[in-house]
Specification:
The protein is of the alpha+beta class. The protein contains 19 helices and 19 strands.
């Protein structure tokens, strides 16, 4: 393997059109994404990137300009050796293969390609959308950025609330795919290409024909899955830095990553991090046992409700749109701790989506091919929950890796028949069998847990205080959301919080906190 310099490019932004001033201000809003800033300009474009290494984030010739974030790479099919690409490498491959090149590209990345002679801008996100990419347009200009707070530094980007997105967030916990809470800022869909030319927009999903194909029926071998998982983790752990960390849960997915890192990076001390509500939290207990078995340097982060006010505010500043219930403030606290010990942090997310490990997969068992069809849908209609995790890591200067969201593992999961993923008795069958070649059975057979804080009296008190803050300051009413304020009601203190009552209250608090930050003035959140 060839090594890549630490760190991968941290952020990108740019403006295309008649008036391209403002990129310096956009870069200032993203100063946390890297200590170095590069800007390249032409007659009708201005591109910028934040980075902390020697790899060039921007490449420009007489016609084609490229800027990227993340770490894109291609894999030789015969040797299985990855080749990591700079901006110049991306430009070269694009000139050879056109937009089809992005269908075989690996890694987590966001890329912008501008063809000056055609006045055509192409924006691309990786297969699962781990790298974030937002955009806004006017009659004269089109702008894009890793984080939409950078777009808000432009005077022509208006802060008009998308009321429909806000209402759907309160119901679902996420803004609809491709949208934000602001009507004039949108997201490039994960795993897609967005083409802007002469004011017209076209979106092409990199796997748009998925659900037109026949579901797989030929079994996949366990060694094949095991090798693919090991390879993918290795491709994302090929840096000069010895400082690797893993967000460790009590389950199998992150444990496979930690064990594989221990094996392939023998010269590195592997740190693991777990966050929970107390030392009796099953996640804390299970992850501690896993870390002890694997021999990692383990860290436990405890989050209490009285810390949530500040954590939620900082989390929303980091990810722009809120979401994820209490999971993301907890992850913010985890990354805040991790930055003291590591440069790169791994997440085990996305394995459950690929190999049928979520509770909703059991509801699909009674229908033929439903699990395969659900995966196809998940790959073409996604919200921003994976990108939010990268934004949290980036806020603390950490390079983020999510191996199970890698294109090659996604393609493999599409080849696994449903019966090798899930039965009434077992979930993630083939993945757990592959994991047994790496981990002891006491880890591989643990059931899936959803991370959450305790919905106890302390949580009730915190929610009640925050709801009182919403009502006394008329935060939702100021933005014509008084109908939402009317449902900001908790059950009596002596009645236990249910999952439904907690999530409704949490989403209202999150939405009001977002509004107090992003709609309060004309300054981009810092």
């Amino acid at each position: 393997m060839t090594s890549i310099a630490l760190s991968p490019i941290g952020a990108l932004w740019g403006i295309v059109g008649a008036k391209t001033h403002g990129t310096v201000e956009m870069g200032a809003a993203l100063r946390h994404r890297g200590c170095d800033m590069a800007i390249e300009e032409g007659p009708t474009f201005s591109f910028g990137a934040r980075h902390s290494g020697e790899i060039s984030p921007i490449s420009v010739d007489d016609d084609i300009a490229v800027v990227y974030s993340g770490f894109p790479f291609v894999v030789d099919e015969e040797t299985r050796i990855p080749r990591y690409l700079s901006a110049e490498g991306i430009r070269t491959e694009f000139l050879r293969f056109g937009a089809d090149f992005f269908r075989v590209l690996c890694g987590h990345y966001a890329i912008a390609v501008y063809c000056q002679t055609r006045h055509q801008l192409i924006l691309v996100r990786d297969a699962f959308g781990v790298q974030s990419l937002s955009w806004a347009s006017s009659n004269e200009n089109f702008a894009f950025s890793t984080e939409y707070k950078a777009l808000l530094s432009l005077p022509w980007v208006e802060r008009n609330l998308d009321h429909d997105a806000a209402h759907r967030f309160v119901d679902d916990g996420w803004a609809p795919a491709g949208r934000t809470f602001l009507r004039h800022i949108s997201m490039v869909l994960p795993g897609s290409i967005l083409i802007w030319q002469n004011g017209n927009l076209e979106t092409i999903h990199l796997r748009e024909d998925l659900c037109k194909t026949r579901p797989p029926f030929k079994p996949i071998s366990v060694p094949h899955v095991e090798m693919a998982v090991r390879e993918t983790i290795g491709w994302q752990a090929n840096d000069f830095s010895p400082r690797y960390g893993v967000m460790l849960s009590s389950g199998v997915d992150s444990a496979v990553i930690a064990a594989t890192l221990r094996r392939i990076r023998r010269d590195s001390e592997i740190h693991t991090f777990t966050v929970g509500y107390g030392y009796d939290d099953p996640e804390i207990i299970g992850a501690s046992a896993t870390a002890s078995l694997l021999g990692t340097r383990h860290h436990e982060i405890i989050v209490r409700p009285d810390a949530l006010t500040e954590l939620l505010k900082e989390t929303i500043i980091a990810v722009d749109n809120p979401g994820g219930y209490e999971e993301f403030p907890c992850l913010y606290a985890l990354h805040q701790e991790a930055r003291q010990f590591v440069d790169i942090i791994f997440s085990g997310n996305a394995a459950d989506t690929l190999f049928a490990g979520m509770p909703y997969h059991r509801d699909l068992l009674s229908t033929d091919d439903a699990i395969y069809r659900r995966l196809c849908n998940d790959l073409t209609v996604r919200d921003e929950r994976l990108a939010a995790q990268e934004l949290l890591a980036g806020r603390h200067g950490l390079s983020f890796r999510m191996p199970y969201a890698e294109r090659i593992l996604i393609d493999l999961a599409l080849e696994v028949p449903d019966f090798q993923k899930l039965t009434p008795e077992n979930d993630k069958i083939i993945f757990r069998e592959a994991a047994r070649q790496i981990l002891p059975d006491e880890i591989t057979m643990r059931p899936k847990r959803i991370q959450q804080l305790l919905y106890d009296d302390s949580m009730w008190s915190w929610l009640a205080e925050r709801i009182d803050w919403i009502c006394s300051n008329a935060i939702l009413r100021k933005h014509s959301l008084e109908d939402l304020e009317r449902i900001a009601i908790l059950p009596p203190r002596n009645v236990a919080l249910t999952e439904e009552s907690f999530k409704t209250a949490w989403n209202l608090v999150s939405l009001a906190t977002w509004a107090s930050i992003y709609l309060a003035d004309n300054e981009a959140p810092g």
